[in-house]
Amino acid sequence: MSNFDILVVGGGHAGIEAAYLASQFDLNVGIITLPGVGLASAPCNPSIGGVGKGQVVREIDALGGITGKLADMAGIQFRVLNESKGYAVQSTRVQIDKEKYSEFAEELISEINNITIIREKVIAIEFEDNQYSVRGECSTWNSKKIIMTVGTFLNGKLHTGSTTTEGGRSDTESSNSLASFFSSIKTVSARFKTGTPARLNKDSIDYAVMTEQPSDSTVRNFHCLNTYNTRNLKQISCYLTRTNETTMEIIRENKEKSPMFNGQIKGVGARYCPSIEDKAYRYPDKNIHHVFVEPEGLDLNTVYPSGISSSLPEEVQVDFLRSITGLEKCHVEQYGYAVEYDVIDTTQLNYKLELESMPGLFFAGQVNGTSGYEEAAGQGLIAGINASLDILERDSFILNRNSSYIGVMIEDLISNTRDEPYRLFTARNENRLSVREDNAVLRMYPYRTSLYLNDAIDHYNDVFVNVFEALIESIEKNVVKPGDRFLVDNKIKIAKRSTVSELLKMSSLDPIKTLEDYLVFIGLDVPREISRCIAITTKYSGYIEKASQHYEKIRSLDKKKVDWSRLVSSENISFECKQRIEKIKPETFGQLKLIDGLRPATLAVVAGM
Amino acid sequence: MSYLYSHDPIIACSSGGTTNTGIAVIRLSGFENFDLIQKFFSLDFSKIKKRYAHFCKIIDNQIVIDEIILTYFEGPNSFNGENILELSVHGNIFNIEKIIKIFTEKCSFRKAYPGEFSYRAFRNKKLSLTQIEGLDLFLNASNPLSLKQGLSLLSGSLQRAYEDLLFHFKNHKSAIELSIDFLDDVGEEESNKQVQESFLKLKESIESLKLKISNSSVNLIDPEVVLVGQPNAGKSSLFNLLLNERRAIVSDIAGTTRDFISEKIRIEDNFFKLIDTAGIRKTDDTIEEMGIKKSYEVLEKAFFKILLINPYECNEDYFSNLDLESFDLIIFSHSDNKDFEAVSSKIMSKLKISGSIEPLSKNGSIEPKDSFGPIGANTSLKDSVLSEYISKIINKKYLNLSNSEPILLSRHVDQIKNIYSIVLNYENTLNNSTDISIISSEFNIVGHCISELIGIVSPDEVLHNIFENFCIGK
C-alpha cells in the first residue's frame, strides 16, 4: 500500500495542474487516471486560451502552473482575439495538436520525481483514521488529501441520435462506481450537458473555398520563460466557412430525431455554446452560422468543425455537413455526440475548493460545473496549492477577484449554485482595464511570492517587477521637447514639452510602438513584454484612476459586514431571497450582491441596515 | 455617525418645540419597559391599553406639570418598530422644554437627532429606502402635487419609469459585452451596430427622464411666480392686484427671495409664491449688481415668469440680458395713454417680439398684450378680468407640468442631471475611442450613477443625507 500526501483523482487539465503545483512543495503526489486515457486530453475544442481564458492561462503561468508551457509546446496556430478592440480585452488563443499536448503532459509530469502516475479505475473512497483510503481494481492507497478532478465522469451518459452509452466521453468509461461515494455529496439537481461536433477527415475537405486564418508569428508565447515568439511545432492554418439555408433546413426537418428536443436528453447545455440544433430551432430566420475548421494535430487525420456540435443521428449529421461549402465531400471519422453528467453543488466548497463538510477533500474542474480547459486548470491550481498549504499548516491561498480572473471564478463558483455550465467571460470582471494579459506577472507576483518557492519562474517574476517599477518611474520623469531628435526621427508632433508618460497617453500615438522606439533611441534594451506592459499600463492609467474612484464608494459598501442570520429572519425580505441567503451565508454586502436572483429591494433594505 | 448604531431611548417633539402651538406631540421611543417613567405619570401603566388615548397628568416631584393625552404603541407594531409613547401636551414652548427635560435629565432618554425616528423605522425594516423618500415628500407636501408624487413613490410607479432606464442601460451594457466576449460569434459589424443602437435607446430614455425634471431649475414643490420689469412698468400694481384677490393665509416663507417682496397666493387648490423683483437692469454700481445677480437667480428658478413693459418709458438696453423667449407672459402697461397700440407695436418689433396685440381692457392701466412659451398666443381676452386671466394661465401651466409626472425629489433631480451629463460625456468616448475596454470602463461609471438613482446600491452617504432632511415621522 502506497501513502501519498495528496492524491489527485483524474488526469485532465485540472488534475495535472493540481499535481504540478503540489509537487513544487516537495510533497508526495499521486495522479490516478483511467487506463488507456492520456493525461490532459482535449476531447472538445483543441485549443487553449481565448477571450478571458488567455488571461487565465497567463495567470496560471505566473503562478508556476503547467498549462502555458504545454500550450506553447503543442501550439500549431497562434492568434490574438479582439485585436481591433483594445489592449485590455485582447487575448491569446492557441490551436493545439491534441495528441502532442497529451504526450508533452505525460513527459513533463513523469519527469517530476515526486509525482506518481497510476492508471487504474477507482472503485471506492473512504475516510478513516484522519486520512483517505482509495481503492482501485487492484490496489489501495492512503492519502492525507484528495483532489477530485473527475470531469464529466459522474454518471456520464453519451448520446448520438437514439444511441445511448455509458461514459464520460467517446471511447472511455464513466466512473459510475464512484457514484456511491458521491451519494453523500450534494449535486446540482439538473444534469449538465455538453456536446461536440463530428470529426472530419482532413483530406476530404476543400480548403480553397474557405477563408484561411493563418498563424500569427508575432503573438507572444504563453510561458514567460519561452522566447517571445519562437514556435516549437510547425504552424498551420484554421479555416472559416458558413452554414447555409440547406444545412439549417435539414436540421429543422429532423427535429424529432434530436435527443435534445425529443426529451431523451434532459441535461442543461450552456446558452453560450449552443449545438447546431439549438441554433436552428431557436433562430428560425438565421441560416448563416460561422463554422471554424480547426486541425486537431499535425499527424492526426481529423479536423474539428467548431460551431456545429450535434447529437443528431449519424445519417442526418452527414447530410447537413455535406451541405456546407467546402465540406461537400467530407468524410466523418467520428460522429458528434452529447454527454450528460452530474456536477456537484459548488456552494458546499470554500475558497480553497475544499468540501466544507469533508475536510481534505477538494474538487476542481468540470465536476464543479465549469466548462473549458483553462477554467479547469485554474481550479486545479487553487486546489493543489491549498491542499499543499494545509498539509504544511500554512495560510490559505486566496486570489482576490479584483486582480485576477481566477479569483473571479472561484468566488462566483462558491457563491452560487450554477444552473448552466460556467465559463469565464471578461464581463464577469469588474476591473477589465487592469486585469489584462500583459500585466499578469505584476498581478500574480504578490501571490506567487507568498508561497516562498524558489523556481525559475520566481526569478523571472522578480526581474519583471523590478524592471517595470524602475522604468515606469523614469518615463514619468523623462521629458521630451518639441524639436528633440527622437520626436523628429519618429515624426511625432507635440505642442509643448511633456514627459514620456504623457506622450504614451496621446490618442494619436500607438503607445507600445512609441515606447519601443523611445527605448531604442536612448539605447536601453528592455524585454519586449515589459515595455509592452508599461506602455499599456500608462495608456490606461487615467481611466483606471477614474474608475477606481467610482469603485471606491461601492467597495466600501461591499466590505460592510452583513449578519445573514438576521436577514433570514427579516420580514422585509422575500422567502425566495431568504432561501438563497441562507444557502450562501454571505458575510459581506459584496458577497450578498453576487447572489443570483436577489431583488434590488432586498439589497436596498440591507444597504440601509 | 455613532447614533446610527445606538439603541438609546430617545425623545423628541414632532412640532420642533420652537413655536407656540395649541397642542404639541412629544414622543418617547425605544424604552424597554415603564419602570423608569412610571413615576412621572398619573396613569398606572400596568393597566394601559395599547393604541388607546388615555387622559392623564405629568407629575414631577408631586407637582402636576401638565394634563395630557397619552397613547401607547408597542413594538414591533409601531411606526418605527420600537415601543413608543405619544404625549399630546399643551404647546407652549416652555412647557414642551420642561417636559422633555424631565425625561432627559431624570430618565435615560436623550433628544433624538433630526430624522432619527424614521431612521429607526428604516433600520427596523419598517420602511424601504424609496418609501422613506416618499414619506419625506408626503409629510412635507405643501401642495397637492407633492402629495401625489409622495404617494406614487410609495407605490413604486415612479420606480417603473426608472426601471425603463435600467432596462436600456442593461441592453447597452450587454451590447458592449457582446462585442468583447462574443466578437467571433457575432462579427465586428453586427456587434458595433448593437452598441450604437442600444446607446440611442438609452440616451432617449435618460432624455425623457430629464424632461420630467421640467427644466430642472423650475421648482414645482414651491412654485414661484416672478414679476420682472423696469421701474414704473407696473409691477407693484400687478402684484397688488393679484394679491388682493387671492392672498393666502400662509405668510411669507424664508428663502433666497427674502430680499424681494413676496407673498403666498392661492389659485384653486394650489399655492404659489408671488415675487416682485428689484428692477433688473444694467448697472456699474457694484452693490446694486449683487441685487441684480440675485434677481437673475430668482428668475432662473421661477416657475412662471411675467415681464412688464411700459412702452412709453422703455430702455432697450434693459432687455439685452433677458431671454425674452423664456417669459410665459409679456404685458404692455399704460394702455390708456395716447397711441398705445402704435407705440407698443414699435417696441415689439424692436425687441423682436412676435404675435399680435389684443387690447384686454379699455379701462385699466395694465394690459396683457401677448404671451410666449407654453401659453398659446391670440387667446381671446376681451372683457375678462385681468387677474382672473393671469391666474388661470398660471394654474394651467402648473397642472400641465404636474400631470407629466415631474420629478421633485432633489436627490433624484441632482442624480438625473448627473446621469445625463455623464451619459453625454460617455457618448463622446463612445464616438471617439476604438478601445472597447475604455468605453466599457467609462460606461460602468454611468452604471454606478444609475444604480444610485434607483437605490439598488445606495452608499451610506446618500442614506445619511436623506435622514438629515427627514425631520418628522409618521
List the helices and strands and how they pair.
The complex is a heterodimer of chains A (609) and B (474).
Chain A lengths: L1 E8 L3 H11 L5 E5 L13 E3 L3 H10 L4 H8 E7 L9 E6 L1 H13 L4 E5 L2 E7 L2 E6 L3 E9 L8 E4 L2 E4 L12 H4 L9 E5 L2 E3 L9 E3 L24 E5 L2 H9 L22 H7 L7 E6 L6 E5 L7 H8 L10 E3 L2 E5 L19 E3 L9 H19 L13 H11 L24 H10 L6 H22 L1 E2 L4 H5 L8 E2 H6 L5 H12 L5 H31 L5 H5 L6 H10 L4 H6 L5 H8 L2
Parallel strand pairs in A: 1-2, 1-9, 2-6, 9-20
Antiparallel strand pairs in A: 3-5, 4-5, 7-8, 8-9, 10-11, 10-19, 12-19, 13-17, 13-18, 14-15, 15-16, 16-17, 21-22
Helix pairs in contact in A: 1-9, 2-9, 2-11, 3-4, 6-7, 6-8, 11-12, 12-16, 15-16
Chain B lengths: L9 E4 L9 E7 L24 E7 L2 E11 L10 E7 L2 H14 L3 E2 L4 H8 L5 H11 L4 H12 L1 H25 L1 H4 L1 H25 L11 E6 L5 H12 L14 E7 L2 E7 L9 H16 L2 E6 L19 E5 L6 H11 L15 E6 L14 H18 L6 H23 L3 H19 L5 H10 L5
Parallel strand pairs in B: 1-6, 7-9, 7-10, 10-11
Antiparallel strand pairs in B: 1-2, 2-5, 3-4, 4-5, 8-9, 11-12
Helix pairs in contact in B: 3-4, 5-7, 5-13, 7-12, 12-13
Task: Outline the structure in words.
In chain A, the strands form five sheets. In chain A, strands 1, 2, 6, 7, 8, 9 and 20 form a seven-stranded mixed beta sheet that branches. A six-stranded antiparallel beta sheet of chain A has the order 14-15-16-17-13-18, with no helix packed on it. Chain A is built from 20 helices and 22 strands. Chain A is of the alpha+beta class and 609 residues long. In chain A, helix 2 packs across helix 11 (440-449), helix 3 (67-74) crosses helix 4 (98-110) and helix 15 (511-522) crosses helix 16 (528-558). Among the domains of chain A are: 196-340, Beta Barrel (Elongation Factor Tu (Ef-tu), domain 3); 454-549, Arc Repressor Mutant, subunit A (Orthogonal Bundle); 559-607, GidA associated domain, C-terminal subdomain (DNA polymerase, domain 1). In chain A, 50% of the residues are buried. With 474 residues, chain B is α/β, with parallel strands linked by helices. Chain B contains 14 helices and twelve strands. In chain B, the strands form two sheets. Chain B has a six-stranded mixed beta sheet with strand order 3-4-5-2-1-6, with helices on one face. In chain B, a hairpin with a 2-residue loop joins strand 8 (261-267) and strand 9. Chain B is flat. Mean pLDDT of chain B is 71; it is low at 138-142, 248-258, 359-384 and 455-474.
